[in-house]
Amino acid sequence: MLAQDHLVSLIDIGNFGMTSPAVTPASLHEMIADLLGMPGALLPILHRVQEKLGFVPREALAMIANELNLSRAEVHGVMTFYHDFRETPPGKTVVKVCQAEACQAMGAEKLTKHACKRLGTEMHHTSAGGAYTLEPTYCLGNCALSPAVMIDGHLHGRVTEERFDALIERK
To answer: Phi and psi (nearest 5°) for 117?
Structure first.
């Protein structure tokens, strides 16, 4: 079976659980195919898939490995080494709480506990109903304004429990 046929087969079987109806087998293959010739294509491919789908389906790892002539273990290793890649669809709102030293010194641990309680989930998980995904991150580059959070790609500094609640209410 050709790698392209394998991709179509993977997509046809269960559609990876993707929630985006705009994703087609052809567009997914193209998002991989146009990056195959570049040196070090694995990270750009993983980023592209996650950018388009919101996650990198576990079933796609074997196909990506095959396309790049890598072992599944190598692809899985890269996927799990970088904390920003996810294997399941994220919640509607993705909340990242900085866990780096500067933020820890300014109350990130307390803020993290509050975020878990407020969002009804733990770190690395999505709340029941899929409203929020809560993730740790290690340095948002906003150390002077710590503790920092990122909500759907928007950076916020000097976040107190009260400010966190206000930011979540705006979503």
So the answer is: -65, -45
